[in-house]
Model the fold of this input.
Amino acid sequence: MASYDVIIIGAGPGGYVSAIRCAQLGLKTAVVEGRETLGGTCLNVGCIPSKALLNATHHLHEAEHNFATMGLKGKAPSVDWAQMKSYKDDVVGQNTGGIEFLFKKNKIDWLKGYGSIPAAGKVKVGDEVHEAKNIVIASGSVPTSLPGVEVDNDAGIVVDSTGALELPKIPKKLVVIGAGVIGLELGSVYARLGSEVTVVEYMDAITPGMDGDVQRSFKKLLEKQGINFVLGAAVQGVETTKSKAKLTYKLKKDDSEVTIDADTVLVATGRKPFTEGLGLAEIGVEFTERGQIKTDAHWATNVPGIYAIGDAIVGPMLAHKAEDEGMAVAEVLAGKHGHVNYDVIPGVIYTSPEVATVGKTEAALKAEGRKIKVGKFSFMGNARAKAVFQGDGFVKLIVDAETDRVLGAAIIGPAAGDMIHEICVAMEYGGSAQDIALTCHAHPTYSEAVREAALACGDGPIHA
Ligand code: NAI
Done:
């Protein structure tokens, strides 16, 4: 048995980042992790492997569609799927290995196995019980299930996001259930690999909750890339044979039932907190109605000495939100003042073009009765974007009509996921559209489109 200042349960982006910050702040720290490698869902079977596949297939798409125009003649490369998966695994290995190195460097103990909390101050891993002044639960989330749809990642016919990264072969027909982030990112990967992709979505728009302009434009762009959408459709069930699936959905508008064939069905209908086996109910930890661990503004649960962060608590299930909470709770435990600004958490979809948003949407602000101004600029007016065939998409900035303060933004376009941070920084500082517009932006860059959208909130953009 060992004794620690902090034991963190889970080594995903929330847990491992928290552990590093705890150690840096002088706390004796251990992390419990049952996977064979560190990094949680994000590094092992989420953000990182999917980005490797998105990168590889983006290049394939460029070769097939844009190389000849640029005078790069010759046949587009053929796909070696086994090698592509091996490249993806290598990227994962480099990243998970990097976390192991950081643990050693910061003298963080990795307690291998799945932990439970028999009482506040105690964490059981295998047969051993360790003591900790404080415990941070960073146990993450797992995919939600859908009635009538049984996921079997090993069989590779009905899969979740984990199985979709390991398909034995590229499906001729892929049906994705759910037009959220996972469905669209992985749907894009397979569409670029030549699969016929149909996305079946319950709501009447893709990426529910996002800005309406983004939803409409993004759908059109994905349709241009060959992805089919069936919206307003409730999935009734999936039947499988040895090598195929039949998916039935009911259209909400007329209650008609439609059955479609698929080689693979990807279930991407959301995730739920993963807290099973921790013994939290037994020690009286309170949950929300949606199964999230309840915490206060300092990530403390109702049981003294037990904290929780990341996907297991309320808020967007995003790696960077978990990371921020991980750092902040470490500071709280070290007697400092940890803080997360939940109003400025960007969200990014890593398709091509990328989609990035931050702050409130135009619809949400209007519903609040807030007086706003919207500045929009199309990438068609951005020289750099046109040079790389990325003139589709736009930057949309939403500001307070009286103070000009930036309240929200959405970008569809090249490197949107990186460009959004200029707007995040402006928002953190309570900045205005004029602040962005008065900042010199290098030419030619994609970021000039952000400045033009800021100019559109004032006297008008130059290139529109
Ligand atoms: P999601 O919540 O983004 O989307 C799920 C979609 O499935 C929604 O559009 C929903 O309306 C639809 N849906 C639910 N039940 C349905 C049904 N019965 N029939 C048809 N459609 C149905 O969830 P997703 O894509 O599974 O992602 C899970 C979590 O992981 C999200 O919180 C997401 O933000 C996060 N994530 C973030 C990434 C990023 O930041 N790039 C990448 C991957 C995941």
